[in-house]
Amino acid sequence: MEQVVLVDHNDNEIGLEEKLKAHQNGGKLHRAISIFIFNNKGETMLQQRAAAKYHGGGLWSNTVCSHPRKGEDTLQAAHRRLKEEMGFDCEMKETFAFEYEADMGNGLTEHEYDHVLFGRYEKEPKPNPEEVQAWKWVSLQELKQLLAKNPKMFTPWVRIAVGNVIEKYKEYSK
Fold this sequence. Notes:
The protein is α+β, with helices and mostly antiparallel strands. The chain has helices spanning 19-22, 74-86, 140-149, 156-172, and strands at residues 3-7, 13-18, 30-38, 43-49, 60-61, 64-66, 92-105, 108-120, 132-139.
């Protein structure tokens, strides 16, 4: 049974909860990671979540989004999940964090303290089909346009984070 780390509004650990249960009944605040991998052209790798995911199936999202396990820091979780979902690993750096709450439908709520990490990779991923049904590289400008045109095709955390991602990428790419 997969568990998530429950946190307070300052990201201090306050307990553990079974993952699905943490997303039910209004959602309990828990720690999360969102990875944005970039290539040398400044494009970010997006993934389309597998249709069978318990929420957000079929939606486009950042390269990887997941949850650290008990005793695992955000960077360790990022390396583990990048390998599990996209079939590669690379150097990553945490760039910012934010808290959000979003209704995911079917009685599920995401309420996360989300740590955002950036990394660089040039090759093609080898996605796990149980996690990912498609992937593509897009420029940040194109991502912004896609979000403006059809926000419902993206996960809520990408819609919320994109402004900070664009701003922080300017610093990261220097």
